[in-house]
Protein: LOXE3 isomerase
Amino acid sequence: MAVYKVKVVTGDVLEAGTRNFVYITLVGTRGESPRTTMSYKFRTGTVKEQTVKCQQDLGPILLVRLHKSRLFLDDAWFCNEVQVTAPDGTTYRFPCYQWLEGDTTQEFCEGKGSILAEDDPEVLKEQRRRELRARQDTYQWKHYADGWPRCLNVDSIFELDSNTKFSCTRAKSFTGLLIYEGAVNLLSGFLTRPESWRSLEEMRTIFSREQGRDIGACLTSPAP
Structure:
């Protein structure tokens, strides 16, 4: 009997956790583990530990398969990474960093930066081929109109999965940055200048001077 220790790290992004069923399968050079139930509840930003028991040693671990099955309603799950510690103490790390939605099975190879030509076992080469085909199916371009750049071949953003969409977290950060930069430019007079700029250097000089005046006014103004 070979016992493997598994750690599954759930991301800390918004609503990364799930209450759906999650299973794991370890794939090694000498065989595969039975599909093992991990849990039906993963909290955002937490680490779930589990043991996977096999009848024999699997050899070096090549892949991990994560299976997600919806309980009643789909509850997407964002997995950061999976760590597997073999009976001999060797630790394998499998970066994921993606959403698993619906009833799905995803495979992840070890994060050691190899290329397809260096993948000796056929199981790794086949995993690479499946991943490439999936990306080709997702990222197809279409011609929208003359003079316009190409866009994804979908009719609505709702056809895209969460790994392709612009995330809520990034959207909030981007919006916050735009508000901050707009406020800075407005207070410095950059957005309300009625005249045109004669040169980029003039724009930089006036912008720096106006910023200095605003800072000086803040420092010298009496407290309310």
Summary: Residues 2-111 form a domain with the Lipoxygenase-1 fold (CATH 2.60.60.20). DSSP finds three helices and eleven strands in the chain. Residues 200-220 form the longest helix (21 residues).
